[in-house]
Amino acid sequence: MTLPAPLAALAGGLVVSCQAYPGEPMRSPETMAQVAQSALIGGAVGIRAQGLGDIALIRERVDLPLIGLWKAGDADVFITPTLSHAIGVHAAGADIVALDGTRRERPDGLSLAETIRRLKDRTGALVMADTGSLDDALAAVEAGADCVGTTLAGYTSDRPKLAGPDIELIGLISAAVGVPVLAEGRIHTPAQAAEAIAAGAFSVVVGTAITHPASITSWFATAVHG
Fold first, then answer.
1. How high is the pLDDT of residue 226?
2. Which residues of 11-29 are buried (b: 16+ CB within 10 A; e: fewer)?
């Protein structure tokens, strides 16, 4: 298949998710832009970023395909939950807009298909659907998503939450859909990243294990203290 340039550039490579949790010292656009610049030096082929300020500054600083999202609200659907959020993410500079691609009800009452259709009509944006199951992924592709991620595997009722990535789901979705599949979620080691590619993933998204010092430190501290 012929893919748009921002997606084609991700083939077989590593996308680094540069995000910090609310209240953390690293929660600032400047810091996340620096993290993204470091990821570029290390060989990342793309960046995933959250929040309009982070997206805009990373777009200015880093010449890589940029997957953007906007976490908002406290409902189950909080990853770019509405059409308005999606339009804002694109306007901030994202090449690909990531949004909740599950079959759950969206806060603005629009279906996933209607959200994607209106977003594409208004902006021409590419869409990544963050999914939690094979049925989610199939429905998201039918709704018009340009690629799907396994981002929400284990975070909905469809699949158990594993300690590591859901390799089985990555394989199932990769075999079933005709769009790129981005393996994402609890990929903590290079070996797991390679396993995801071997299972059929188009590319791999890694966040915590690269960009979240508090989590990485806790892993080592736990191992040291026993």
1. 76
2. eebbbbbbbbeeeeebeeb
